[in-house]
Design brief:
The protein is of the alpha+beta class. The protein has 3 helices and 2 strands; from the N terminus they run ββααα. It has one domain. Helix content is 51%, strand content 13%. It has a two-stranded antiparallel ribbon. The radius of gyration is 17 Å and the shape is globular.
């Protein structure tokens, strides 16, 4: 595994990268840097950690909203356990993140 140095929001990071994965990793770094820069430029969030969490949530949401590349299972297939509880679980996660980040404000 090779090491590459990248910059996100002006901060340098040395990341491990499997052989042949450089392009994918650099694309991911670019996406994170764009999201964090957009949050910073909006001026509502000042803490770097909070920007990183919001950027991660934004990117995860965008990924979840993409159309599936494989056909969906047949209608007769049962949903995975807990699939209906996803919104409640997401709200619980946001509450835990808010608690961990302290009184710097709320995520949403």
């Amino acid at each position: 595994m090779k090491q590459i140095e990248v910059t996100i929001l002006g901060q340098s990071y040395r990341l491990g990268c499997p052989d042949g994965g450089e392009d994918a990793l650099l694309a991911a770094v670019d996406a994170v840097d764009r999201e964090m820069s957009a949050i910073r430029d909006a001026g509502k969030v000042k803490a770097r950690e909070r920007m990183a969490v919001l950027a991660a949530l934004n990117l995860a949401y965008q990924l979840a909203e993409r159309p599936a590349t494989v056909p969906p299972p047949p209608k007769a297939a049962a949903e995975p356990a807990g699939a209906a509880a996803a919104p409640a679980e997401l709200q619980a996660l946001i509450t835990r993140i808010d608690a961990a980040l302290g009184d710097d404000g709320r995520l949403l």
